[in-house]
Description:
Blueprint: E1 4-10, H1 17-20, H2 31-34, H3 46-49, E2 55-58, H4 70-77, E3 82-85, H5 90-98, E4 103-105, E5 118-122, E6 126-129, E7 132-135, H6 141-149, H7 152-159
Parallel strand pairs: 1-2, 2-3, 3-4
Antiparallel strand pairs: 1-5, 5-6, 6-7
Helix pairs in contact: 6-7
Amino acid sequence: MDAIKGRIWTLGNDIDTDIIIPTEYLALKTIEEMKKYAFSPLRTDLAAEIQPGDVIVAGKNFGCGSSREQAPEIIKALGVSCVIAKSFARIFYRNSINNGLLLIEQPDLYDHVQEGDQLTIYKNEKIEYKGNSYPITALPDNLLEIIEAGGLVKAMRKKNGLE
Length: 163
């Protein structure tokens, strides 16, 4: 995987799946229709402002709440290249990997970033921000393969020669 450079959007602690996509919008037929309501209980304009390649940096317990798979799908559909947080809810973490969304746990970065700034992620190595380096734990190869393929189903199709 190559380096990722992206503009930062900061969110706080305990961003649950009802904030990522409120229940009332789950009745919409497609992720494309739903994504414009992402994060609307927190910031009504955020979904419209996120650009492809942007990065979300959040506090602890990102993705807590229900296990709805639409939450990571919508973040990915917005074009977010990565979510970096102090910690993630475990079900959200696995749903994100299965949907091809890169998540990185990093305990210190959130306390130092400013929204709108740029950072660079050297996957499985470090994050660089304003001349400082923040170490990250390497993801296992099997999870990287799923993310690089765009999700678990695509990875399995590729592995089985179906794509």
